[in-house]
Q: What sequence folds into this?
């Protein structure tokens, strides 16, 4: 009797594993089918574990453990990644997140990154860093939003930006990548070498290092 019961239990566990494999295969097939029929960009993913549902109107795929998602122009790695929305529109990566926008060679790091594949907008939250490798710009803040279409980055809370010998600090900043213009507000200060600039609002041309200041202007220019 014990041998029979043992065999029954082994058969049940085997069926359960087979059911999980089938569910995973069906989820992958559904995701591929949705992307192909919607004309959406394809993407791949991997992780230690996966769970989710493909219920109409509530599609969610959860990747846990060394998770990675690759789209045609974005790579995201994190401890946990959730994919949801019609045609897998939303990607939510949490825990030691690293990302690469491959078209422009931008590197992202944050506690959490949310990416909208339709709008092509990435939102970085908590200990966020953006590196523009092409222009040698490093930006840090508690919140960073990058719009791929306009190539405009909005940064908020304890913002710091570095390029060559320029260092800026502020509570709010807008970095226009195409024009190489940086707008600072919220107690902004800019250091260029030994020189120091403070005002209510500061605009920096990052190609020429020209500085425009408005409101409560203060500066220190140290001669060599």
A:
């Amino acid at each position: 009797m014990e041998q029979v019961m043992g065999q029954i239990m082994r058969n049940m566990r085997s069926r359960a594993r087979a059911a999980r494999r089938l569910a995973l295969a069906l989820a992958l097939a559904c995701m591929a089918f949705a992307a192909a029929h919607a004309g959406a960009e394809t993407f791949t993913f991997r992780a230690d574990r996966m769970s989710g549902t493909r219920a109409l109107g509530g599609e969610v795929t959860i990747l846990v453990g060394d998770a990675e998602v690759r789209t045609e122009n974005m790579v995201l790695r994190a401890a946990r990644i959730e994919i949801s929305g019609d045609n897998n529109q939303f990607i939510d990566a949490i825990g030691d997140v690293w990302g690469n926008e491959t078209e422009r060679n931008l590197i992202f790091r944050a506690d959490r990154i949310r990416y909208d594949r339709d709008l092509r907008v990435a939102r970085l939250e908590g200990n966020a860093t953006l590196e523009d490798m092409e222009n040698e710009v490093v930006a840090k803040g508690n919140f960073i939003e990058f719009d791929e279409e306009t190539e405009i980055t909005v940064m908020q809370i304890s913002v710091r930006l570095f390029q060559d010998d320029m260092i800026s600090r502020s509570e709010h900043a807008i970095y226009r990548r195409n024009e190489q213009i940086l707008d600072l507000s919220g107690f902004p200060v800019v250091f260029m070498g030994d020189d120091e600039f403070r005002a209510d609002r500061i605009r920096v041309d990052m190609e020429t290092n020209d500085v425009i200041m408005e409101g409560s202007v203060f500066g220190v220019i140290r001669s060599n």
About this structure: Residues 46-163 form a domain with the lipopolysaccharide transport protein A fold fold (CATH 2.60.450.10). Confidence is low (pLDDT under 50) at residues 2-9, 16-39.
